[in-house]
Amino acid sequence: MMPGGLSDTKPATPEVQQLVNQVKPQFESQAGMNCGVFTAIVYRTQVVAGTMYFIKVQVSDAVYVHLKVFQSLPHENLGPSLVSFQTGKTRDDPLTYF
After folding, report:
1. Of 44, 39, 71, 70, which Cα lies nearest the Cα of 55?
2. pLDDT at 44 over 90
3. How far, in Å, are 47, 49, 55 from residue 5 at the CA level?
4. Mean pLDDT, rounded, of the chain
5. Within 13 Å, how many C-alpha atoms sit on residue 17's CB side?
């Protein structure tokens, strides 16, 4: 991976699911949705002054969203924040930079 570029797409880990759980209220508020399901499927990362995560999240049987989540450096002691999102995605839509 080149510096500043996106990593390869990888299966979501428990740590990525934890990030998703932490930004779920931000997403629901901004998207005007209430999600019973909010499961991280795959993710990519971009190293910046912290880490930008691009995460595909399943929100219902056939509906997915893409989240862009920023996690600051550990010494800053801040939680993850939802930067942006894309709705209306499918399981097969590629996870790309947005």
Report:
1. 44
2. yes
3. 8, 13, 15
4. 91
5. 11
- Please give the single-letter amino acid code of residue 23: V
| Residue 20 CB burial class (10 angstroms; 0-12, 13-18, ≥19) | buried
pTM, two decimals, is: 0.88
In this model, does residue 33 exceed pLDDT 80?
A: yes
Q: How far apart are CA 42 and CA 93, in angstroms?
A: 11
- Residue 1's pLDDT is 44
Do residues 65 and 86 lie in contact, with contact meaning Cβ atoms separated by under 8 Å? Answer: yes
Q: How far apart are CA 21 and CA 3, in angstroms?
A: 28
In DSSP notation, 10-40 reads EE--HHHHHHHHHHHHHHHHHHT---S--EE
Q: Which residue has the higher pLDDT, 47 or 67?
A: 67
